[in-house]
């Protein structure tokens, strides 16, 4: 019986995934296109990370105290203004990424990095669960030498923790550009709670994230 349940679960995962074409009518609550991103406020900082399908990562980062906005998009590739379909071919070099606008007086960059690692399995190379490809790789895009050093320190902390059995494969890559994803991807987790992928894959990741980041989340 246990084997049958496992087989059914694997079949369900094979029928879903972050690459699925959605037919849900997602409310266009964020009017976003490649030419428009949130304006950085005075005293605010920005960070860009990638940790698998951006649906869960965006939700996780949005839950943190001090984070004003998290935007799903694409980073790390060569093609300007890529589409979801182009990134999904694994030919553009982009990763599904999330750009985070936060108040460093409320949440430090180091805590933000710890939250990033709490939200995905950083030991999986070029994949997250059922999602396979370099566009699902684990990356932190640093903007300064200081940020690079802090990313490397966060990786050492994660490797020294008991959160994973394997070694962290997260890349530390210089930031070059971020392109926001299509409108229907923004806040996808919240707008599609009954989506099979969200239920089977994203929800467990977000719940694990909440457990690890207890005390750092908004009410």
Structure description:
With 219 residues, the protein is α+β, with helices and mostly antiparallel strands. It contains seven helices and eight strands; from the N terminus they run αβαβαβαβββαββαα. The strands form two sheets. It has a six-stranded mixed sheet. α5 (145-160) links the parallel β6 and β7 (171-174). α2 (54-62) runs parallel beside α7 and α4 packs across α5 (145-160).
Tags for this model:
219 residues, alpha+beta, Peptide Methionine Sulfoxide Reductase, Chain A, six-stranded mixed sheet, two-stranded antiparallel sheet, 18% strand
**What is the CATH architecture descriptor?**
2-Layer Sandwich
Order of helices and strands: HEHEHEHEEEHEEHH
What count of helical segments does DSSP give? 7
CATH fold-level topology:
Peptide Methionine Sulfoxide Reductase, Chain A
The proportion of strand residues reads 15-25%
Strand order in the sheet with the most strands: 7-6-1-3-2-8
Oligomer: single chain
Structure at a glance:
By secondary structure, the chain is of the alpha+beta class. Helix content is 34%, strand content 18%. Strand 6, helix 5 and strand 7 form a beta-alpha-beta unit.
